Give the backbone structure.
Amino acid sequence: MNDYKFSTLEYKRPDLEARREKLAGWKDAVEHAQSYGALRALMLEIDRETCELATQYSIAHIRHTLDTRDEFYEAEIAYLQNTLPTLSGAEVALSEAIAASPYRADIEQEYGKQYFVAMDLQKKLYCEENIPLRQQESRLTNEYQKIMATAEIPFDGKTLNLYGLQKYFEHPDRAVRAAAVKAYSNFYESNEPRLEEIWDELIRIRNQMGKNLGYENYIPVGYLEQGRTDYGEKEVASFREQVRTVLVPLCQKLYDAQARRLGIDHVMCYDEKMVFPDGNAEPAGDDAFMVKTAQKMYHEISPETGEFIDFMIDHELMDLQNKPGKASTGYMTSLPSLKAPFVFSCFNHTIFDMQVLTHELGHAFAGYMAMRSQPISDYYSEATDIAEIHSMSMEQFAYPYAEWFFGDQADKFRFAHLQEALTFVPFGVAVDEFQHICYAHPELTPKERTYQWHLLEEKYMPWRRYENDPFMERGGYWYHKLHIYLYPFYYINYTLTTMGAMEFKKKYAEDKEAAWQDYLRLCKAGGSRSYLETLRYAKLSNPFEEGSVRRACGYAEEILLRQIAEQARFIHQVHRAAQPFIDPLLHRRPAGLRLFNARCPGQNHPPHKLRVCRRQQDRHPRAEGMGHDVAWRELQPTDHLGGHFHIVRHAPRLRRRRTPAVFAVAGKIDCRHAHPAAKRFLHAAHHLRRTHEPVQQQHAAPRVPARRHIDRRPANFKLHPFAPIPYPSHPHYFGF
């Protein structure tokens, strides 16, 4: 079947009672197999039918998440999730029969030992008493998903879902960002009572599952469900500690730098996504443009990725448009009988769209290769702690093609994306530790558990600050992370695999072809090896070894800090280069000239009153025009010059007082080349604009028109009074 499209695929409810009978028949046939050939043929038959069942389940699941309001697929998913657990006993019995076969050595020789490792995990996780608990768990997680998917939040004159609202987290206007985050917070606070109840029930149910299997709580079961066979809680805890000691201080530096770029004292929670003062990088086109460009990129990366992306587009195996009722999530799943991956997400015209086209398609490419390289469906999917290496590494491999997606904002994308890759890790380990606390201490009340998240933010995210949001301040942020509800103990995988992705980034920079071959080998391996075995197979390091985090992230850290240092050096040169230009600008040699970065009031530092002055015929500044209360500070070598800064000097005595004259300079600055950049600064200063628009500040005084004057300045030269100037778009915004 090669001519299908996903929209035309027929869904047929699987006959699970018939499958129950088949499982019993297969078990009997396995026990009576007379040769390895007969047993192998039977195993392949079982595999084909299992693939067909999984495919029908995936079709129902995808269409349910495409529109959670569709009652038909909602009922189908409920039926499958309630009925499939009842087959677990028969499936375990079949697995035990295969494992006890006299031809086990032949099976292991052909398929490897991981085949029986997976069977052993299945056996350890089976307990008849847990079947009704699994059904309850499914109902609760479905309810959580529906609450998220059906969110309707009024904002900016629109009714938005959660993905649509998140776009405003990157709005250039700080007040809009703050309002958007507050609206986001209000949604979760309004649903908090039911979210508390769902989480409380899930903890109780899952802990009971663990007790039924002979454990103290759910934690060991969660590890088994994630397929972790060669490491445990102790190793994960040591990794979290490495993150705390190595990455948390680095992330603090990065956010301090971001605060200086934005001209604020501290990065608030609503500032974290706003990496640049003039706005983050945005895709250069719509959804169709992004997909078309991705197709071009994947053809450029390798023949394998080119074949893969054509397959995905031709068969309509991606649904990326944000729509009402669509589940608020992103994922890759498989249609194994068709050897086809499927990618689901919601574009919102931010750099998130690029991440989808690289992250989720990284998962999809790995599945595509494994389904064509591995002999049985058991190996089509790799362990969850390996899976994210595929996706996060593909994000890094896409860096050379960023110009295709973002034009002259490509460097902004690369910087922001790499910074986010590192700053995410502390949050990821906090999510993991939060789950350990909740399951290990079921006696905690809902409010006490939420407070534990607050303490984890202080531990792993000391930079995080909330403003006028008591709900978030007491720890409400964790409610938005659906993995906590739906996929217990999965989230640490993102942080572990970030280490692998950072290693691939360095290898790709040193030897592109060798790195790609290692990555391709990793994708083709699928689930045929354990976690640590797969790392060795792909020539990657063990993240649990002491010092592994520092080694893995060292290259990315070097890139970010080097770009920051380049900007600092550039500002020193601007100080030196600006001096000879300012003398003729002011028609006199200024005494004690200094550069200042002006900021608006209400940003947690005391304002100082400056009088905006314009030139007069006597060539002395005059206190005529707009008066504004603004907060300011001296420009430091560690500051970022994004094209919006002010030359400030004290004018001679005027009306028996000293009045500061403020001139704003706006221009494009290329910080990659130091001396030429300083020249560009001087050149840009000739393109100042006169404006009479009042500053939109709480202390803005009524506007008074400025007097005309005559001087000897160039014809294209216009003096700009102090007023907000849009930051120019240019590709090199690195540094403090």
